[in-house]
Amino acid sequence: METTSQSSTPIHLIAGASRGIGRSLVDHSIAAGHQVHALSRTAPDSMPANCNWITGDVADPTPFLDQLPEQIDALTFCAGKVVLGPLKRLRPEQMLEAYKTSVLDAFTLIQALLPRLSGSVVLFSSVAARTGLPNHCAISAAKSGLEGFAIALAAELAPKVRVNVIAPTLTPTEMGLAMVGGEKMIPMIEGRHPLKKLPAVEEVAATALYLHSPGAVSMTGQILKIDGGMSRAKVS
């Protein structure tokens, strides 16, 4: 990471760290030698070594702020709820839930940490933000809002803090597989992607780590799509 704490060890806060991409990123970050602070509403079944695990809700940061260091070199926001369903069955409260967990919770946490942030912020969107997909009205609206928030935030926080977004297609996490009906559906879904594959959890986590690294110091306000070519390439 390009900006480090006084101890010269990069300090990385990962919100939504208990499962999926967030949990993989915890392991990647520890392996990279970072001082990792992991945040989730529930503690994991197995606690990783060399990690300060904080139990708390990103919607209300006040109770756990005193457990965090005075400087945070990298913030990755992996939290958020995926809300799917056809328009005729969506309820207004579901639309609001998708927006709250993707945009408002990110806003709340970043605002609370603003005096401490130095270096890089990475947020998670979805290929559905810019690619029309059935049953994705709620999450598409929410993630489009998140991308707009991130681009404006990148301008506001420059040059001290860089802000970038990762927009993956379906990633085979526990939550992702549950949404599509399990592993039996993966071959059909992969067939819709030009590369005929879905990104591995570790691949997405490694991309987040890269965005926090010295190799990405000239990148801000960018949306990186890890989507097997779905949003850009059309093949027969």
Q: What do these coordinates show?
A:
This protein has helices at 20-31, 92-113, 137-157, 174-180, 186-190, 201-211, and strands spanning 11-15, 35-40, 51-55, 72-77, 117-124, 161-168, 223-226. It has 236 residues and is of the alpha/beta class. Helix 1 packs across helix 6 and helix 2 (92-113) runs parallel beside helix 3 (137-157). The model is unreliable at 3-7 (pLDDT under 50).
Question: Strand order of the main beta sheet, please?
Answer: 3-2-1-4-5-6-7
What is the typical, i.e. mean, pLDDT?
88
| Tertiary shape | globular
Count of helix runs: 6
Helix percentage: 25-40%
**Rg, nearest Å:** 17 Å
Portion of residues in beta strands equals 15-25%
- H/E element order: EHEEEHEHEHHHE
Structural class: alpha/beta
Topology:
Blueprint: E1 11-15, H1 20-31, E2 35-40, E3 51-55, E4 72-77, H2 92-113, E5 117-124, H3 137-157, E6 161-168, H4 174-180, H5 186-190, H6 201-211, E7 223-226
Parallel strand pairs: 1-2, 1-4, 2-3, 4-5, 5-6, 6-7
Short description:
The protein is an alpha/beta fold and 236 residues long. Helices cover 33% and strands 18% of the residues.
